[in-house]
Description:
Blueprint: E1 3-9, H1 17-20, E2 28-33, E3 36-41, E4 44-50, H2 56-66, E5 70-75, H3 86-106, E6 111-113, H4 122-134, E7 141-144, H5 158-167, E8 171-174, H6 189-208, H7 211-214, E9 220-222, H8 229-242, H9 253-257, E10 261-263, H10 269-279, E11 284-285, H11 301-304, H12 311-325
Parallel strand pairs: 1-5, 5-6, 7-8, 8-9, 9-10, 10-11
Antiparallel strand pairs: 2-3, 3-4
Amino acid sequence: MRVDFHTHIIPENFPDFAAKFQNEKWPVLKPTCSCGANIMVSGKVFREVTDQVWSPEKRIHDMDVENVDIQVLSPIPVTFSYWAPIEEAVAMARFQNDFIAETVAKHPTKFIGLGTVPLQNIEEAILELDRCVHQLGLKGVEIGTNINGKNLDDESLIDFFAACEKWNVPIFVHPWETLGGDRFSSHNLMYTVGMPSETALAAASLILGGVIEKFPGLKICFSHGGGSLPYILPRLDHGWNVWPHLQLTENPPSFYAKKFFYDSIVNNPVNIKFLVEKFGAEQVIMGSDYPFLLRETPPGKIIDDTLTLSEEQKRAMLGENALRFLNLPVNLLI
């Protein structure tokens, strides 16, 4: 049984906030045919998408073909809109959360939903978090790796993480607005180098800033196998040791990194083996990045191809770990 934890969705009737709010920074969905569209930002094509990104029926067909039992739906990161005025950002978050909740309600055996919250204003973010979990029935939230350039250990975010721990809300961290700016503009380096680096920065900030130590009950999963974090952990530990005056935690970074979850989008069985050796099979969750071009096809292939894994480990990584992370019963798949 398989749960694809990392998939993205956007409604076909996505509102034209660029026109409504008179600002071209808003992403706009412009159809190119009956089976596709362009996501436009500031008048330029940000991403080409197919109807897989909005059609539940197309998703379910693909799931049947690719042997996926459940997809976990989350927004496309470009829609986080942390830069926007708060009233507008709330409107965007609520629209998407309502859509994801409605999609799950129509297909409760096929989909699980994650919401989004406007983190540029923590009071509003917590209000929407409350609505997501306690009214809409979403099982967690997806957040970006930074909030308008602020790392995730920024003091302004403390109350948000406190609320997530209090309500036991799982957090899926996905890269967006990557560091590096124009240096990643060629060769699609933003996706292949920028995103892994950005994810590592977010994870290191949560660790070194003491957020994970302060809120030990937080459940956090990092996309793309944690980016470059697993591979730079020895360097982070070494820095923690040689600069004791900077230490904000009782233990070195590798101690806290073992508390995170990581999706399996690492493109090679050798990397899956490394994740398991580093953090344990119980911390790795299958994800594919459906329906985008860089996705894994079929979902779970890299786990299947990792010969060093036991059948028990594969079963956990392919489905059970995702349900456990989302506070759902493992027998949901039976």
